[in-house]
Amino acid sequence: MNMQSQIQRKEDPLTSHLGDDLVIFSARNGRYYGTEEVGTFIWSFLERRATVLDVCEALQAAFDVDRPICERDVMTFLEQLEQEGLVTVH
């Protein structure tokens, strides 16, 4: 995965909002995943296919975060979502 990789969330996980947090359930994995405000923002943003760069730019516009930190953390989060089979990477 790199900054130009296109990411889109898969349709099969079920989600539920709990305040600013989000719970994602994957029946395929039989697991629940919890995200906080930023993870919820990213998950919502990935409803449509977007590049990793798009995600970082949207986060920087919405939150006060330095670019290098944003890129590192977004990449880590998206790689975890990919490993769990919750997103597709193109």
Would you give an account of this structure?
By secondary structure, the protein is an alpha+beta fold. The chain has one domain (11-83): Arc Repressor Mutant, subunit A (Orthogonal Bundle). The protein is 41% helix and 28% strand. The chain contains three helices and six strands, in the order E-E-E-E-H-E-H-H-E. A three-stranded antiparallel β-sheet has the order 5-1-6. It has a three-stranded antiparallel β-sheet with strand order 2-3-4. Strand 3 (21-26) and strand 4 (31-35) form a beta hairpin. Helix 2 (52-62) crosses helix 3 (67-83). The longest helix is centred in the C-terminal third of the chain and has 17 residues, at 67-83. The chain is globular.
